Structure formats: structure tokens, C-alpha cells
Amino acid sequence: MEPATKKTNDLTLKDRLSRLNFQQAFKLLGENSQRLITKGGAIQIDIERQVTLNAEQLDVRFPMAQTKANGSHEALVTIKLSADARESLSWQCSVCDTICEHVGAAFALVLEDKLSLGLAVASLADSLARLMLSTQRAQPQNS
Length: 143
Description:
Blueprint: H1 13-19, H2 22-29, H3 33-40, H4 47-50, E1 51-53, E2 57-67, E3 71-81, E4 89-93, H5 101-112, H6 124-138
Antiparallel strand pairs: 1-2, 2-3, 3-4
Helix pairs in contact: 3-5
């Protein structure tokens, strides 16, 4: 029995984020999005400490983010479903009025770390490769 394919209107936030690709993200974010996603992708994000993902929204916190107008503040980027937004996803940064590196970093995280966010399942080959690597590291080296 094959899994049922959901209709577009039935897709959850996790469904939409799991299917999001770079081209869709560039289109969603508009001008300068490619540069900001690339630059934001260089920002280190601790998923356990900085990221919350539930059925309603994805929150990514950036402690003590620098902003030109407001000095230093924690930035919070929220991505959520929105029926009237492009790709049915809306985004907002708590400290910036327009697309920014924080938003770019949040989308880079979604695009590059789907497995860590629980938006993808590891393939059997990936799982076996990780197991073999961890087993090799655990074995003592003969000198």
C-alpha cells in the first residue's frame, strides 16, 4: 500500500518546510535572498538551544544580534503557515523590518538541516555510513 499524497491545502508547516527547496526559498524571500541565505548559512545555530519547531511555527533565536537601528537585541525569526503568503509560508524577524541575515540564516537552516529538524528521514545508506564511522572512531588504534 502506497502512502497517500496530501492535497496542497492539507499540508502542515512541517510538510511545507520539508518540501522547500532553494529556488522556492529565493522566490519566497525575494530580492537579495540568495545572498542572505548564503551569508546566513555561515551563522552557527545550536538547534537544541535556539530552535523551536511545533505544528504552528518555527522559531529561531539569535542571541544579541546586532542591528543598525536598535543596537544589540535578541532576534527571533518566526516562520509559519499563512494562506495568503507565497508558498503558504510567512516569515518575520523581531528586530529587522525587511529581509535580513537572521531570516536568511533561518531559511538556510531549514534548507540544509532537514534531518536535524525532523523534516526528513535518514536513508539506510546514510545511517549505515554513520554507524560504521562511529564504530571506527570507538575502536582503539594500533600503533
